[in-house]
Design goal:
It is a single chain. A hairpin with a 3-residue loop joins strand 3 and strand 4 (66-74). The relative contact order is 0.19. Helix 1 (14-28) runs parallel beside helix 2. This protein has one domain (2-79): Double Stranded RNA Binding Domain. Helices cover 39% and strands 31% of the residues. The model has no long low-confidence stretch (mean pLDDT 87). It has a four-stranded mixed β-sheet with strand order 1-2-3-4, with helices on one face. It is an alpha+beta fold. The chain starts with a strand and ends with a helix.
Length: 102
C-alpha cells in the first residue's frame, strides 16, 4: 500500500506524516493487498479565522471495487485525520466483505 500525503492549503509536517502513516497502517494493514494506493489531502478551509474547518479527504483505491473517498471535518487536523481514517476503515471492511460474499 502506497500512502501519499498531499499538501492542500497548508503544509504538512513530519509529525502529521508520521501520524497518518501510523494510523493508516494500523487501520488498513489487513487490507494492504487489496488497497494498492491511498491518497490523503489536508486543508484548512477558513484559514486563520478558525472554527471547524480542518478537512481531511482520504481516497483509497480498492482493487476490484474502485475508489472510495471520505471527507471529515474537525477543529483540529489530527482529529480530522483520525475521523477520516476511521471512516475509511469501516467502509473498506464493508466493501471487501460484500465482494467476498458474491
Amino acid at each position: 500500500m502506497v500512502i501519499t500525503l498531499v499538501d492542500g492549503s497548508i503544509k504538512t509536517t513530519n509529525a502529521m506524516r508520521d501520524f497518518v502513516h501510523h494510523r493508516l497502517s494500523a487501520a488498513l494493514g489487513r487490507f494492504g493487498d487489496r488497497i494498492p494506493r491511498v491518497e490523503i489531502r489536508i486543508t484548512d478551509e477558513n484559514g486563520p479565522r478558525g472554527g471547524v474547518d480542518k478537512l481531511c479527504r482520504v481516497t483509497a483505491n480498492i482493487a476490484g471495487a474502485g475508489p472510495l473517498t471520505i471527507e471529515k471535518r474537525a477543529g483540529d487536523f489530527y482529529e480530522a485525520i483520525a475521523r477520516a481514517i476511521n471512516a475509511v476503515k469501516q467502509n473498506v471492511a464493508r466493501r471487501v466483505s460484500r465482494r467476498g460474499k458474491r
